[in-house]
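FAQ: What does the model actually see?

It sees only this:
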Amino acid sequence: AEHWYRAAAEQGDPFAQASLGILYEFGRGVKTDLVQAYMWYTLAVERSKGGDRDTIVEMLDGLNEKLTDAQRAEAKRLAHDWKPNKPAK
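And it is asked to produce this:
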């Protein structure tokens, strides 16, 4: 699942970004990495609307409590610097 979520997430799909965040937060198929989880949730929130966005905000808020200030700053920097890949042709 990680491979396909990553492919779509790297192209800017918010559902895939949130899903990749879940994988990183809980170590499902990848090594647990809360900084990566926070980064992917942040990107997903920026691209989501309505109820989907509200759900991702709740996940982000829950994860927020698990991070140090330094980890949170790193995740925000990674999200700020992130650029989507162009779809393969």
